[in-house]
């Protein structure tokens, strides 16, 4: 009966065991998608299709669905056979074990790339397998844009489910709050359209709750009538950091409230082996201005080089995405602090000395530190659109996300690199905490192994997420069978008085956060 309904072999799956083996005689025929396995041409191309080699694994096979119904059939098979699986959107995560698996099926969303704009151009349906560069290129033809990623290589799915920091952050809120509806395949295999009216609880939970409730196959986003913009990098002398940090504190507290259309983030990059040590700032404005907006003029006046041009959103995100090349080993970590110029300087100095510490011992070693404001305007705009589960309120004051990207080449250097990163994180957050400046919030898309971003949302939000998960995934499929990703904690033991007690997470606990 099964054979008469389905095409020839496209999927190999043991019917009794939780792990997959291409030599197993038990097979199931599935009329869907595309399957790649170790015996298939181009297998390795699909296996390594992610940014960081730290995130690559060896799945038994790779399933590439072409529709939500394909995903639905696959989920039912995984559940019926207790089969482990992992989901890859854009593959931009650097966390080991996140976007792949060594013990089951890798579901790659890379063929879910439809982009369909509405007749009135006020919304767009975006397949979960898209990258933002492709989205901007397509919708730019209609002179509209969305609150998407700021680098063209970043995938749509993980970005939106983790909250999302866009160029429109301060005026429109977190990118997740610009999602009008989700198409999701639930643990039951049901394909559901989730809106603020149809499933109000799940709609909110997906705004920061990441992949704990199902596999999202498409997003409907609000569009904005923005065509040409002005954006680019400003360069600064390294001995001007103190002035830069002062400008950034003022901007975060006051400037962005005056003009929330502005968007700035501060970048420090160091590659000791190439004598690269630089300070820069990326500036974005959603209009091709000829006279500088007053809020950003101090940054322009202080710079020694400006490459600010009128361009499209696609061109801007290509510009910021060029620093990411597939293949090396990457690690990302982040935390948040209250806006304080003196603290910014201290945190920079700790990072810089740490980067130089590995100068002569780690081939290909480089490091980048970025300061990105989360303004009160951001939080108010998000709340106006219905809120999210990130646990942020304007009363807490503006925050600065401090994030790091580390890059190296050899797997044999992993232990040494991770030890230094752990030391940097512990030292930095301890200093911020000692000054009563450490924020509770950890931005999920910058969180590294051993961090607990969902727990950082606070007890009330975690309790809400637990209730939603129990309702839509009562058997815990996306906790028990789905590999990788940040899971909803069973309790919020690390939250104390509005701050995250980072010292309770030890470096040697790294592995348990990969697969729990």
From TrEMBL:
Stored InterPro entries: FAD-bd_PCMH, FAD-bd_PCMH-like_sf, FAD-bd_PCMH_sub1, FAD-bd_PCMH_sub2, FAD-linked_Oxidoreductase, Oxid_FAD_bind_N
SUPFAM superfamilies for this protein: FAD-binding/transporter-associated domain-like
Gene3D superfamilies: 3.30.465.10, 3.40.462.20, Uridine Diphospho-n-acetylenolpyruvylglucosamine Reductase, domain 2
Segments forming domain FAD-binding PCMH-type: 55-226
Residues annotated as signal peptide: none
Domain of life: Eukaryota
Keyword entries, A-Z: FAD, Flavoprotein, Oxidoreductase
PROSITE patterns: FAD_PCMH
Gene Ontology molecular function: any one: FAD binding
Oxidoreductase as UniProt keyword: yes
Family stated for the protein in its record: Belongs to the oxygen-dependent FAD-linked oxidoreductase family.
Name the UniProt record assigns to this protein: FAD linked oxidase-like protein
Species per Swiss-Prot/TrEMBL record: Rhizoctonia solani
Native organism taxonomy: Eukaryota, Fungi, Dikarya, Basidiomycota, Agaricomycotina
């Amino acid at each position: 009966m099964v054979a008469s309904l389905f095409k020839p072999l496209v999927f190999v799956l043991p019917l009794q065991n939780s792990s997959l083996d291409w030599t197993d005689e038990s097979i199931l025929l599935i009329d869907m998608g595309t399957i790649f396995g170790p015996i298939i041409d181009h297998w390795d191309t699909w296996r390594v299709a992610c940014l960081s080699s730290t995130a690559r694994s060896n799945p038994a096979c790779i399933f590439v669905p072409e529709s939500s119904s394909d995903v639905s059939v696959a989920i039912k098979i995984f559940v019926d056979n207790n089969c482990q699986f992992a989901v890859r959107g854009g593959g931009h995560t650097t966390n080991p074990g996140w976007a792949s698996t060594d013990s089951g099926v890798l579901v790659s969303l890379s063929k879910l790339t439809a982009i369909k704009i509405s007749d009135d151009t006020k919304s767009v349906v975006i397949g979960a397998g898209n990258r933002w560069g492709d989205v901007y290129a397509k919708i730019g033809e209609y002179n509209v844009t969305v609150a998407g990623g700021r680098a063209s290589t970043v995938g749509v799915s993980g970005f939106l489910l983790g909250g999302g920091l866009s160029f429109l952050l301060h005026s429109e809120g977190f990118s997740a709050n610009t999602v009008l509806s989700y198409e999701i395949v639930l643990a039951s295999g049901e394909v559901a359209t989730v809106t603020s009216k149809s499933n109000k609880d799940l709609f909110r939970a997906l705004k920061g709750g990441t992949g704990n409730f199902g596999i999202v196959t498409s997003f409907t986003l609000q569009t904005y009538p923005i065509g040409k913009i002005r954006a680019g990098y400003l360069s600064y002398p390294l001995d001007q950091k103190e002035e830069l940090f002062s400008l950034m504190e003022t901007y975060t507290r006051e400037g962005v409230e005056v003009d929330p259309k502005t968007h700035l983030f501060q970048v420090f990059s160091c590659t000791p082996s190439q004598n690269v040590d630089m300070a820069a700032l990326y500036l974005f404005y959603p209009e091709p201005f000829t006279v500088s907006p007053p809020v950003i003029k101090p940054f322009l006046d202080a710079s020694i080089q400006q490459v600010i041009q009128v361009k499209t959103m696609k061109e801007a995100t290509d510009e910021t995405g060029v620093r990411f090349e597939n293949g090396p080993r990457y690690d990302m970590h982040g935390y948040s602090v209250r806006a304080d110029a003196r603290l910014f300087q201290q945190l920079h100095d700790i990072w810089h000395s740490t980067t130089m510490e590995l100068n002569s011992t780690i081939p290909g070693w480089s490091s980048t530190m970025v300061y990105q404001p989360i303004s009160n305007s951001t939080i108010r705009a998000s709340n106006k659109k219905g809120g999210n589960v990130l646990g942020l309120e304007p009363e807490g004051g503006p925050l600065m996300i401090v994030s790091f990207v580390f890059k190296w080449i050899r797997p044999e250097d992993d232990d040494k690199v991770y030890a230094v990163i752990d030391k940097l994180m512990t030292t930095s957050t301890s200093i911020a905490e000692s000054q009563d400046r450490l924020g509770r919030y950890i931005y999920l898309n910058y969180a590294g192994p051993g961090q607990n971003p969902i727990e950082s949302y606070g007890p009330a939000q975690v309790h809400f997420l637990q209730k939603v998960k129990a309702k839509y995934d009562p058997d815990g499929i996306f906790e028990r069978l789905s590999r990788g990703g940040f899971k909803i904690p069973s309790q919020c033991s690390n939250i104390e008085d509005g701050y995250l007690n980072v010292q309770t997470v030890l470096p040697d606990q790294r592995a348990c956060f990969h697969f729990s």
